[in-house]
Amino acid sequence: MALQTDVLHALKDKLLNWEHLTEPELETSVREFEKIPRAEVSTFYTPVLSNNDLGAILVAIGRQFPENTKLQVNVVSALGNMVWRYGLTPTDAMFDYLVATVDNRKVNFYVALHIRVFPQYQTWDRKWEYLLSVPDIAPRKKAFVVFYDTVKQQLEKRDMMPLAVKQAIIKKIQAQLQDENLHPYLKDDYLATIHAIVEQ
Length: 200
Description:
- It is a single chain.
- By secondary structure, the chain is mostly helical.
- The chain is built from 11 helices and no strands.
- It has 2 domains: 1-121; 125-200, no CATH class.
- Helix content is 69%, strand content 0%.
- Helix 2 (23-38) packs parallel to helix 5 (69-86) and helix 4 (52-64) runs antiparallel to helix 5 (69-86).
- The N and C termini lie far apart (47 Å).
């Protein structure tokens, strides 16, 4: 455990001084850093991975290199996992950065995976429009899982869906029910979710 903690602190120090790194060096450092919050949760990592300055620096790096897909993917993933698993304060700057990357086709799956853990998602004026677009993101099977989990999250939060959104969600879930290889558990879960949407 101490070795990974040492690695994390070394990476944090590099990222805190990111302006002195070349883009390839930064890409390598962010890639190595992203692996840590994505791995198994450890309380030893919390002081670093909940650090607001580090979160702000990741946003700055992402904004500085919008064309570097590898950096974008790793910044989005690191921020999402730091917020979700380590209690990093989800700032408006972080959320705005994710929103700015939703149309990047090479990054948007990772945005879909993580944007829903931000409380700002609940009041985002494009929330429903965006949610309905998620199943069309590649890879589609994984994107549907993210879409479906987000629908269930919104139901648990008792977030009232507009009628047109309800209809569109039900249609997308019904399309999955047509799969002959669908596991019976999933079929029952899909039907229960459709029922919950109708009853809302």
